[in-house]
Amino acid sequence: AEIMEAVCRMIKDPSMVHGDLKIAFTPDEEIGSGIGHFDVTGFGADVAYTLDGSAPGELEYENFNAANVTVVIKGVSTHTGTARNVMVNAVHLASELVASIPAVMRPETTDGYLGFIHPNSIEGNVEEVRLQILLRDFDDHGIEDKKKLLSTLVNSLEARYPSCQATIETTGGYQNMRKIIEQHPKMVELATKAIEETGLKAQYRPIRGGTDGARLTYQGLPCPNLFTGGINFHSRTEWASVQWMEKATATVINLARLWAAEKK
Question: What pTM was computed for the model?
Answer without folding.
Answer: 0.86
